[in-house]
Design goal:
The complex is a heterodimer. By secondary structure, chain A is α/β, with parallel strands linked by helices. Chain A is 48% helix and 15% strand. The longest helix of chain A has 29 residues, at 295-323. Classes of the chains: A alpha/beta, B alpha/beta. The A-B interface holds A 129-130, 133-134, 136-139, 178, 182, 233-237, 341-344, 347, 478-481, 486, 490, 493, 503, 507, 574, 611 and B 74-76, 81-82, 84, 87, 89, 159-161, 181-183, 205, 208-210, 212-213, 216-217, 257-258, 260-262, 264-270.
């Protein structure tokens, strides 16, 4: 390959103007970036130009900023890191919009430093899943993990820095993460915020002339107490924690009080007392694993939880009562009470009218969470809710999602593959499941009448496919004696041969173990006879599958833009093929666009939850992937292909049945050469589809 | 035709199997036995179901015949079959028929694993008829009062395929087993392994932690049996962390992330 000469500034300026035609304005020209780019080698120029092109397709404005900074970045960092920098900026743009993304592009220095540190720093994103499970295992209320600049907890979520790089090696930094998380967990588990007053910390500190200092002192003292708790409960972790502690000079008074806080019975009350006593002492230097105490956030989180959990517990108790209603209530009504369990300090037994009651696991979790806040369960919580008790959570309907503010609530988020970046756009698609409204028209009966002959033939062929009892002959072990084998064996024996030991028959059932998911295109383009053909095909398929006994589900897909991907439930795996399902098949109507990747990802997720030896995903489609917001052409095809590759990795076989006559151009690339079928006449779809299914599964 | 001689004493348990009662299960079992009602033991794996059966067989002084069910277990595997020896066919009792004949306790372990049609052969034995028809010999065995049937299953497997049919389960007195309470479990681990009180305590704490992870990547938490394994390793000189990793973490999961979590937990505790 001959290396080309670098492009000149003038050439670059012209190219940039063409590429970014929307972005530059009168007071902003492409001259400066072009001049800078001209100083690079041709290889780096090409690298920059490639990404300018890619980014300009996402947002020209962002591409302009990128063009202005890329030269600088390429001078400061190796190309590989520059790529990471670009991808990060694009991710931020996808999630938070233009300005934060521009900020990342501008601040090359920080990024360059970060990538230098990368080899020894640890990122929360990588270690987060392990940490979250670690915290969950340590017991107590389930804590979420979120990145935040300062480490603290509001008793619901544990906030930790997104990266840690202060220690010399990566292993050390990972260990620091663990200890920070455990330290914050200790705050929630050993009762730093326990008590009836969620505002206690804030109020107590305000009593002092310098509340900020008081809070710092409280934190230092409480850390002594918590560390001692950790030493008792998790000695292994404590050994690691000790290695990270910073020694500081303490007065004798301090040492005296510290010793008291380290005793087994010390509670947060002792810490408050010690705070009053030691107010005025110099603040010791905080340990590296300490974060901050955020009394305000704790107060908000606890108050919110208290109401919610009280209502939830009372509703649960009421539920328990209705289960027990057969027993006549004693005088004065039912009474709930608590008794200390024998198992451990924190165990408790729920009693109803003096008899122990075993609450369901969710109620038990709730009781433990309340006890974690109060150190017990207050009596007023142990009253079953009245009939007029309010239900804390109103059912949200997915159809309402677009009306209110909670548009990502309860939806599934999926990544999407951007082939130009060669990276996923994270949590890019918002998908929701909806029900197809059943329509009760005689469509199914009509179809069966229309294809009477075909239906009868299908029945026959599928019955032949059904798992059958087969008798295996001449087995070593079995249920019955195989007399033919026995007679042969005796003949052999009389001739002086050896007696065979294969003298039994064995019944074996060849069970079909198949789960198949049908993904039906409900895009607007299926309107008319394609939709009819699809529905007719589904009717015939269902009839055939009922004979076979294979597990199957049917989902329709459509949507408009990445924020509104929709899956329409026609039949779920555990649902029988009944009137409702028939009504839903009848009710399948063309909707909007065809965003295939996200639909495939969602259905694979559902398939993954099913236990079957063979899993099939069969798509009925009328054309290429296509959506309103640029999901078309190569982009759509590549994302769909990527989704199918993911499916393959999960052991799901994907197959596509299409009526698009151009399909030969792109389907082999997406599904693989043998994994699609093209039907040139849509009217033949119902005829062909069952045949295709039979071939696929036998 | 002559039944193959199996000494009934071969299944008799002469030494008391160690068992700590968790509640009223011993009394319940004894009453069910005296009233000739079959028993269903429910509970997660490794919580002491099989040990309980051994203990009860010892208490009641009856031979215990245990069948571990698997998905290829057929009715003839339980009832019996003809075998061919030296030119003639010989009927050989299966474990169930044998237990009926000698008046022992037949324990079908993990009964849901067996084929659906297999579980049906125990139906006539499990109601007040208490007979076992042997279709192939034309014989109908009538159980003596000493005979008892017990089955076990683990309701934790959340698979529709592995559920017990109502017609089967409604013939039994059900005893629910769970992991023993904290102190009790500690005593069991210590007694079985001799690892010492302090380490047994930590092991039980460790087990509680893994049980907190059930449903978040672990199908089951560490069972008492696993704890005993780890404790035995420790008692013979293996370091606590290596013992936890080998006997518990690796036994629970293959997922590297989960292994990391469990290893961190044991490192924090010991």
């Amino acid at each position: 390959m001959t290396s080309l000469a670098p492009l000149t500034a003038a050439e670059l300026e012209e190219w940039l103007d063409k590429e970014l035609d929307a972005a530059p304005s009168s007071h902003r020209t492409t001259r400066a970036p072009a001049l800078a780019l001209a100083s690079l080698t041709r290889a780096k120029q090409d690298f920059a130009r490639h990404w300018i092109e890619v980014i300009a397709k996402t947002n020209p404005e962002l591409a302009f900023h990128f063009a202005s900074h890329v030269t600088n970045a390429l001078q400061q960092m190796p190309t590989e890191d520059t790529k990471t920098w670009i991808i990060q900026a694009m991710d931020v743009y996808d999630k938070m919009g233009l300005y934060p993304a521009v900020a990342i592009l501008t601040d090359i220095a920080t990024f360059a430093k970060g990538s230098e540190n990368k080899s020894r720093s640890a990122a929360l994103k990588e270690i987060g899943p392990v940490l979250e499970l670690f915290l969950q295992a340590l017991s107590g209320r389930k804590l979420k993990l979120e990145p935040n600049e300062r480490a603290y907890t509001d008793t619901t979520t544990v906030y930790l820095p997104a990266t840690l790089g202060s220690l010399p090696s990566r292993v050390d930094n990972i260990r620091l993460y663990k200890i920070m998380a455990a330290h914050l967990w200790a705050q929630t588990w050993f009762g730093t915020f326990q008590g009836t007053d969620p505002q206690r910390l804030v109020r107590h500190c305000q009593k002092f002339p310098d509340p900020e200092y008081a809070r710092g002192l409280f934190y230092a003292l409480e850390t002594i107490r918590l560390d001692a708790c950790l030493a008792r409960e998790l000695p292994g972790l404590y050994r690691e924690l000790r290695a990270l502690q910073t020694a500081s000079q303490k007065s004798s008074r301090w040492a005296l009080y510290a010793a008291r806080l380290e005793t087994r019975d010390a509670t947060v009350d002792d810490t408050y007392e010690t705070l009053d006593a030691l107010y005025g002492e110099p603040l010791p230097k905080p340990h590296i694993y300490q974060g901050a105490l955020n009394g305000e956030a704790v107060a908000v989180a606890i108050s919110e939880r208290l109401d919610q959990e009280r209502a939830a517990l009372q509703a649960a108790l009421k539920h328990l009562l209705t289960d027990k209603e057969s027993k006549a209530p004693p005088e004065g009504g039912h009474r709930f009470s608590l008794q200390a369990g024998q198992e451990s300090e924190r165990a408790m037994v729920l009693m109803l009218d003096g008899h122990p009651l075993v609450p369901p696991p969710d109620v038990r979790t709730l009781m433990h969470s309340i006890a974690q806040d109060f150190g017990g369960i207050p009596d007023e919580y142990l009253v079953a809710a009245g009939d007029e008790a309010y239900v804390p959570e109103v059912d949200k309907k997915p159809e309402d999602a677009w009306k209110g503010a909670y548009h990502e609530d309860g939806a599934y988020l999926y990544n999407e593959w951007d082939h130009r970046r060669q990276h996923y756009r994270k949590e890019w698609c918002v998908l929701r499941e909806l029900d197809v409204h059943p329509v009760h028209e005689p469509f199914v009966a009509d179809t069966l009448r229309k294809y009477k002959g075909l239906a009868a033939r299908l029945r026959k062929t599928f019955e032949a496919l059904r798992g059958e009892n087969a008798v295996q002959r001449r087995q070593k072990h079995g249920d019955e004696i195989d007399f033919d084998a026995l007679i042969d064996a005796f003949a052999d024996l009389h001739c002086g041969h050896e007696l065979s030991d294969r003298l039994f028959t064995r019944n074996r059932r060849f069970a079909r173990n198949i789960a198949v998911m049908f993904m039906v295109d409900m895009s607007g383009s299926t309107k008319g006879w394609i939709n009819d053909a699809e529905r007719e095909s589904l009717v015939l398929l269902c009839e055939a599958l009922e004979i076979l006994g294979d597990r199957y589900a049917i989902y329709g897909f459509s949507g408009i833009t990445r924020q509104r991907c929709e899956m329409y439930r026609v039949k779920q795996f555990d649902e029988p093929y009944n009137e409702t399902v028939r009504g839903r098949i009848t009710g399948i109507k063309p909707q909007d666009y065809t965003r295939m990747g996200v639909a495939i990802r969602h259905l694979c997720r559902l398939l993954n939850d099913v236990e079957a030896r063979t899993k099939l995903l069969i798509t009925l489609s009328d054309g290429k992937p296509d959506d309103y917001d640029g999901y078309r052409g190569e982009y759509g095809i590549e994302d769909t292909r990527q989704a199918l590759l993911e499916a393959k990795r999960d052991g799901i076989h994907a197959f596509c049945i299409t009526i698009d006559t151009d399909a030969r151009d792109y389907l082999p690339h997406m599904y693989g050469a043998a994994n699609y079928a093209l039907i040139d006449d849509v009217r033949k779809l119902p005829l062909k589809i069952s045949d295709i299914y039979r071939h696929l599964t036998s | 035709m002559k039944a193959r001689a199996v000494e009934p004493d071969g299944f008799l348990i002469t030494k008391e199997p160690y068992y700590e009662s968790q509640g009223d299960e011993i009394i319940l079992f004894e009453s069910a036995y005296r009233n000739q009602i079959p028993v269903l033991l429910k509970g997660p794996t490794g919580c002491g179901k099989t040990r309980f059966m051994e203990h009860m067989a010892w208490r009641l002084k009856r031979p215990l015949i245990t069948v571990s069910c698997h998905d290829d277990l057929t009715a003839s595997d339980l009832v019996g079959r003809y075998l061919i020896t030296a030119g003639e066919t010989v009927w050989v009792d299966g474990p169930l028929a044998h237990a009926v004949r000698v008046g022992g306790i037949c324990y079908l372990d993990e009964v849901v694993e067996a084929r659906k049609d297999t579980t049906v052969v125990i139906h006539p034995l499990a109601d007040d008829r208490r007979v076992l028809p042997i279709e192939k010999t034309g014989e109908v065995l009538s159980a003596t009062p000493e005979f008892a049937l017990a089955i076990s299953y683990n309701p934790g497997y959340q698979s529709v395929l592995k559920d017990l049919k109502q017609s089967t389960r409604q013939r039994f007195v059900a005893l629910e087993f769970n992991y023993p309470a904290h102190d009790l479990e500690k005593r069991i681990v210590d007694h079985e392994s001799g690892v010492g009180d302090e380490r047994a305590e930590k092991l039980v704490r460790f087990a509680d932690m893994t049980r907190n992870l059930k449903g978040s990547g672990l199908e089951e938490g560490a069972s008492t049996r696993l704890l005993v394994h780890a404790a035995k390793l420790m008692a013979s000189g293996v370091s606590p962390q290596a013992a936890c990793r080998g006997a518990i973490a690796q036994a629970l999961t293959d997922d590297p992330e989960m292994l990391a979590v469990i290893t961190e937990l044991s490192a924090s505790l010991f």
